[in-house]
Specification:
Layout lengths: L7 H26 L12 H33 L3 H26 L5 H5 L1 H16 L1 H13 L6
Helix pairs in contact: 1-2, 1-5, 2-3, 3-5
């Protein structure tokens, strides 16, 4: 079974996911290796501890959820696979959700580097969600055709 030609918009979304993956990993490694955020236990103020703990919570959540989803989205969309479409939609939801939390926090404090750096990805996620939804038949058709192909035959 041949894979359908990848539309330009899907190519763009795959590349955005790949770039988001690299920037997410680089950002958090920089935070960790340069000790840009003190560990929560090293801070005296409960508010400072809570803010640092929230930052480390995002770090953990990004490495557990965002990094694998962005990888699967980039590779899967590039290959026009249903798992790529699914991972991309899940990553889009994470972008919008996490950035909503960060923007609300930043609205009451000061803009954070992550809030500024990842803003374009959250905006792209809103656009990509709509585009992927409109293109879902391409991915469903692949899945349906692959499930009908007997094992070991192409």
């Amino acid at each position: 079974m041949s894979t359908p030609r990848r539309p330009l918009a899907i190519t763009v979304i795959a590349v955005i996911n790949a770039v988001g993956l690299v920037i997410t990993i680089a950002f958090w490694l920089l935070v960790l290796l340069k000790h840009l955020v003190p560990t929560p236990g090293s801070l005296a103020s409960p508010l400072e501890r809570a803010n640092a703990a929230t930052t480390y919570g995002f770090l953990l959540g990004d490495f557990v959820w965002s990094v694998p989803l962005l990888f699967l989205a980039a590779v899967g969309l590039w290959r026009m696979r249903l798992y790529g479409w699914t991972a991309a939609q899940m990553a889009n939801a994470l972008w919008v959700y996490s950035m909503t939390v960060i923007w609300l926090r930043d609205a009451y404090t000061t803009p954070s580097p992550g809030g500024v750096l990842f803003l374009p990805f959250a905006l792209a996620a809103i656009w990509a969600t709509v585009i992927l939804w409109k293109q879902r038949a391409l991915f469903q058709g692949i899945q349906a055709a692959e499930s009908l192909t007997p094992a070991g035959r192409t």
